[in-house]
Amino acid sequence: MLSAFWCHLLPAIKLYLLGLKVLLLQLLNGPLRLPVMPRQDGNVAIVTGGGRGIGYEVARHLVRLGAHVIIGGRDEQEGLAAVRRICEHYKEAKVEFKKLDLASLQSVRQFAQSFRERDLPLNILVNNAGVMLVPEGRTEDGFEQHFGVNYLGHFLLTWLLLDTLKDSGKSGHVSRVVNVSSSAHRIGQIRLNDLNSCQSYSSHAAYCQSKLAQVLFSFHLHQEMQSGGFQVSSCAVDPGMVDTALYCHLWTPLHLAQSVIARLLFRTPEEGATTVLSAALSPALEGDCGGGYWANGCREMTTPLTFDPQLQVSLWEISLQLLNLH
After folding, report:
1. Using one digit for the tens of pLDDT, what is the confidence trace for 68-108?
2. Domain-located, residue 92
3. What's the confidence (pLDDT) of residue 39?
4. Shortest CA distance to 121 belongs to which of 163, 160, 158?
5. What's the CATH number where 116 sits?
6. Is the pLDDT of residue 3 over 60?
7. Which of 70, 88, 102, 167 is most exposed, with the fewest beta carbons within 10 Å of its own?
8. What is the rounded CA–CA span in Å between residue 198 and residue 192?
9. CB 95 within 8 A of CB 83
């Protein structure tokens, strides 16, 4: 009994201490400002979870720069409202909403098939949608929710759109996959024999595992694209502590305290989108300068675990098996 209690408590303590450290560092760094980015006329971008928060700000900025943006999300009302708000700001906006539920592999496949049938290019894929600290539960296909939504749904989406990304990339203008991860990956562990957290469940540990999986996937995908000679780059991004609805599943007293602190000290969604947009748009990240892990507007080192080639390959191959992609 005591062991089970400790298994639940320790990941929570680690995550909250890490959050405090990240918050202090970003307060010391000061506010982020997005540098001037090149126009994106003729480019097409997909942003998952673009109906609100960081995803909305990413979509809005891409539209402002002339990109054709497709917002993928499960809440149709929220997504259509986001499209209307963007169109009110930018009269020539090319933005639309398409249904995408990352907790349903069928929905992911339908979204990707619908996009491919339009014969559009795909220059930017921002895998932004996610859940955090949700109660124990399973996706439509039986996967633990953090692993299924944050990681596996985006893995499948990227895989199904990879040929389009390859065809759209050119020398000097590579296609980019941006996976919105978190500093929580630093305390995550990948349990290859229990990716669905069946042996013991901690929402904190499950969240951290999903974010580590995203970083491992980002790094391995980038290596695969580079070694294959494809004009596609892949990176992982930490937007920092941002005042969004992501924290809604915190224990009620913590959520009340967090909501007050967030308004005072967290980054705004627009600030949180800055590093994501830099990774998606910066000309400095062309060629050999692409890939990596980005936080606070610059490239940062991650934990040694993220560079473990055997772990990267093992997770990649297990993911293919789980998704019947072999």
Report:
1. 999 999 999 999 999 999 999 998 999 999 999 999 999 99
2. yes
3. 96
4. 163
5. 3.40.50.720
6. no
7. 88
8. 12
9. yes
Chain mean pLDDT for the chain: 93
Residue 292 counted as domain residue: yes
CB 294 within 8 A of CB 236: yes
Q: Please report whether residue 1 resides in a domain.
A: no
Q: For the ranges 6-10, 43-47, 57-61, 286-290, which has the lowest average pLDDT?
A: 6-10
Among 90, 151, 201, 207, the active-site one is 207
> Taking residues 19-42, what's their average pLDDT?
92
Closest CA to 70 of 47, 87, 92: 47
| Residue entry with tokens 């904190």 | 204
Contact predicate 240/180, CB 8 Å: no
Task: Using alpha carbons, list the distances in angstroms from residue 294 to 153, 218, 238.
Answer: 22, 12, 6
Cβ of 61: how many Cβ atoms within 10 Å?
Answer: 21
The pLDDT assigned to 196 comes to: 92
**Average pLDDT value for residue range 278-300:** 92
3 state SS of 90:
coil
- Do the domain assignments include residue 146? yes
Instruction: Tell me what pLDDT residue 246 has.
Output: 78
Give the number of domains in the chain. Answer: 1
The three-class DSSP label of residue 233 is: strand
d(CA 298, CA 295): 6
> For residue 275, what are the domain limits?
38-323
Amino acid 2: pLDDT? 46
Q: Which residues, other chains included, contact 124 with Cβ-Cβ below 8 Å and sequence gap of 6+?
A: 40, 43, 44, 45, 46, 62, 67, 175, 176, 178, 280, 281
Q: Indicate if the pLDDT at residue 126 is higher than 50.
A: yes
Is 16 in the active site? no
* 184: Cα separation from own chain's centroid: 13
Strands, E assignment, 146-244: 175-180, 232-238
CA distance 146 to 150: 5
* 11 close to 187: Cβ distance less than 8 angstroms: yes
